[in-house]
Structures are given as C-alpha cells and as structure tokens.
Design goal:
The protein has a domain at about 1-80 and about 160-165 and about 185-240: Rossmann fold (3-Layer(aba) Sandwich), CATH 3.40.50.300. It contains nine helices and ten strands. The protein is of the alpha/beta class. Strands 6-7-8-3-9-10 form a six-stranded mixed β-sheet, with helices on both faces. A four-stranded antiparallel β-sheet has the order 2-1-4-5.
C-alpha cells in the first residue's frame, strides 16, 4: 500500500454557528499531486490551514506524514512546506537573505543551508533577483520566493494555496513547470479555482463546495461526469 502523507479525518471548523468546513475526510498518498478545487469561499483555504495546524479544528484530525498536527505539530511541520495565499514575505529583505533567515530559524546547518539556497534559487528561477528587495519584485517573483522558502528544508509534503493567483500567462507557465518537476518527488496538495491548472499538474481532484467534500477521484472521472471540467464545476456548485 502507498504511504499516506496528508490525511483528514472528519475535519470540521465552526465560526459561531457557521460551518466553514463540515466533516471533510480524505487521504493523499506519497507521490500524488492532487488539485483542491472549489468556488471562492467554499472552504479551501480553511481546510489547508487545518491540515497544516495553523488553525485548530472544532473536531476531527489532520495528519502530515503520520503526525497529528494538533498534538505533534513541530514534527509534522518538519515534513511540510506550506505556501499560503499571499504568504508572509519581508519586503525589505532580498530573496537570499529571507531564505537564509528561514533556514537558520529551522536549524539547518550552515553548509547544508547554502547548498539548499543554491538549489531552490535555481529551481525557482530567482537568480536575476537574488539580491533585490522583495518589496520591489513582481507578484510572479514573490510567488517564486514563497515557493523557494517552502522547499528550502526538503519537505516531503507541499501544501500550496493558489500559487498562480494574479500571475500573467508567462509566470503561470513557469510556476506550473516548477510544480511538475517538484511533483516527481513530493506529495502535493494544490488549491486552485483555475481549471487549466488541474489538467496541467494534477492526477486527482478533491472538490469542495459550501464546506463539504463533494468529489474525490481521478481527473478523467471528474471530466466524464459532465463531459468537461467547466460543466462539472458548474454542476457541482449549483445550489441544492
């Protein structure tokens, strides 16, 4: 059997009487690249924050590489690279100083850290902006810096929330190319509402609507439901 690397067991999150996530369960195995689909406000970002341990669940359990993120978050975080939408980057730092800062915070040994910085800078195509202030960079380059930071400590699992949001077509192409390369070795959960993203990088779809998981299966099966991705998306998000 494939080793489960991302697990959700009946995850539920209430804000007052409102259920942002309601009884969501799934498992993602080692080496899978999975697209997390749904309309805006469906609960994708909340689900990801619960999976990473950034938010506490009202009930249910999330696990990263077998670690329960409610009680063993530090061990789980060591296996996890997380890129939130509009992730925190320090605008006065350069990409290299930011990477060095996060690497030191994670306790990566100096020689190893410099090797990893060189690797992620190459992988994420950051050489041309290596020493520039992050605040002066385009949205595309800031996204690449965020991805480099998420990959710095060689995590087994990547959780990426809308990594191509707001990018132009060339920047989207570059991010997808990077994801394809990373996906050969890592387990990836990719949140998106861009349907082309699904076919470009993923092999499986999780679809959430109004806080509930309404589809979990292969992309081909997702398309077969209504002949194409657009039709399936619309029909899954129709009000009951």
């Amino acid at each position: 059997m494939n080793t489960p690397m991302i697990e959700a067991f009946e995850l539920t999150k209430y804000y007052g009487d409102f259920a942002a996530i309601d009884n969501v369960s799934f498992s993602i195995s080692k080496g899978e690249v999975v697209a997390f689909l749904g309309p805006n406000g469906a609960g994708k970002s909340t689900s990801m924050k619960l999976l990473t341990g950034y938010l506490s669940a009202t009930r249910g359990v999330s696990k990263i590489a077998g670690h329960d993120m409610s009680v063993d978050r530090i061990a789980g975080a060591a296996k996890l690279g997380y890129l939130p939408e509009n992730g925190p980057l320090y605008p006065d730092m350069s990409p290299v100083s930011l990477l060095r800062f996060f690497g030191e915070a994670r306790g990566i040994e100096r020689k190893k850290l410099e090797e990893r910085i060189e690797y992620v800078v190459e992988l994420c195509s950051l050489k041309t902006v290596y020493g520039k202030p992050i605040g002066k960079l385009s949205k595309g380059f800031r996204q690449r810096v965020g991805m480099a930071q998420a990959l710095l400590h060689e995590p087994d699992v990547l959780i990426l929330d809308e990594p191509t949001a707001g990018l132009d077509p060339n920047q989207i192409y570059d991010v997808r190319k990077t994801l394809k390369q990373i996906g050969k070795e890592k387990t990836i959960l990719l949140s998106t509402h861009i349907l082309q993203e699904v076919e470009a990088v993923a092999s499986r779809v999780l679809f959430i609507n109004e806080g509930k998981l309404v589809f979990d299966g292969k992309i081909d099966d997702f398309k077969k439901k209504d002949n194409n991705l657009d039709n399936t998306f619309r029909n899954l998000t129709k009000s009951a």
